[in-house]
Specification:
The complex is a heterodimer. By secondary structure, chain A is an all-beta fold. Helices cover 0% and strands 46% of the residues of chain A. Chain A contains no helices and 9 strands. In chain B, a hairpin with a 2-residue loop joins β7 and β8. In chain B, strands 2, 4, 5, 6, 9, 10 and 11 form a 7-stranded mixed beta sheet that branches. In chain B, strands 1-3-8-7 form a 4-stranded antiparallel beta sheet, with no helix packed on it. Chain B contains no helices and 11 strands. The chains are: A mainly beta, B mainly beta. The interface between A and B is medium-sized, with 26 and 27 residues.
Chain lengths: 112, 116
């Protein structure tokens, strides 16, 4: 499986934008980029996914580099409730069901 | 709609005892996953089912662990006998059908297991 690299932790202030980077230099053309997050004492939850184009949803935006070797999860206005571990995961298309392989993720700390 | 339901939420047991964790997936989902999370190893996939059939159990740590899915709405993960190193949070997740690489997994709240 192609691997991802994320910073161990990042800090942000409430109400400010947060850009969480992910490097995936060995990504293949059939890999989707997924982001999940895990709030304290909860199970992981889906945030967003994309293939080539930038994506937006109510939770976040996903910016994908043109060569697809990196991506950035953008939280437009961080709140205290966004403090969580964020996981960047690659999933291969068209190989049967593609399971999730979680790395260590990035722990996001949000200060008031 | 109810999400993935797990029980019990907390379990404390003594070494050597049998432990059974339970999961009810979201209705209509035909994939079910069992994960284990520890500080040392992070979040690991133990086993997953499709249409009640185990597809990949390569993550099951040893023969003390077994999982079943007797029907589409219920699964169990059993540890017998339990050991202190089995202490972890166990998550169940379910997913709708598909093989496009983007199907979302929905996780339950987890069962926090402590083996003394």
């Amino acid at each position: 499986d192609a691997k991802t690299t994320q910073p161990n932790s990042m800090e942000s202030n409430e109400e400010e934008p947060v850009h969480l980077p992910c490097n995936h230099s060995t990504i293949s053309g059939t890999d989707y980029i997924h982001w999940y997050r895990q709030l304290p004492s909860q199970g992981p939850e889906y945030v967003i996914h994309g293939l080539t184009s930038n994506v937006n949803n109510r939770m976040a935006s996903l910016a994908i580099a043109e060569d697809r070797k990196s991506s950035t999860l953008i939280l437009h206005r961080a709140t205290l409730r966004d403090a969580a571990v964020y996981y960047c995961i690659l999933r291969e298309v068209n190989s049967g069901y593609s399971t999730l392989t979680f790395g260590k993720g990035t722990m996001l700390l949000v200060s008031p | 709609d109810a999400g993935v339901i797990q029980s019990p939420r907390h379990e404390v047991t003594e070494m050597g005892q049998e432990v059974t964790l339970r999961c009810k997936p979201i209705s209509g989902h035909d994939y079910l996953f069992w994960y284990r999370q520890t500080m040392m190893r992070g979040l690991e996939l133990l086993i997953y089912f499709n249409n009640n059939v185990p597809i990949d159990d390569s993550g099951m740590p040893e023969d003390r662990f077994s999982a079943k899915m007797p029907n589409a709405s219920f699964s169990t993960l059993k540890i017998q006998p339990s050991e202190p190193r089995d202490s972890a949070v166990y998550f169940c997740a379910s997913s709708p059908p598909g093989s496009r690489g983007w199907e979302t997994q929905y996780f339950g709240p987890g069962t926090r297991l402590l083996v003394l």
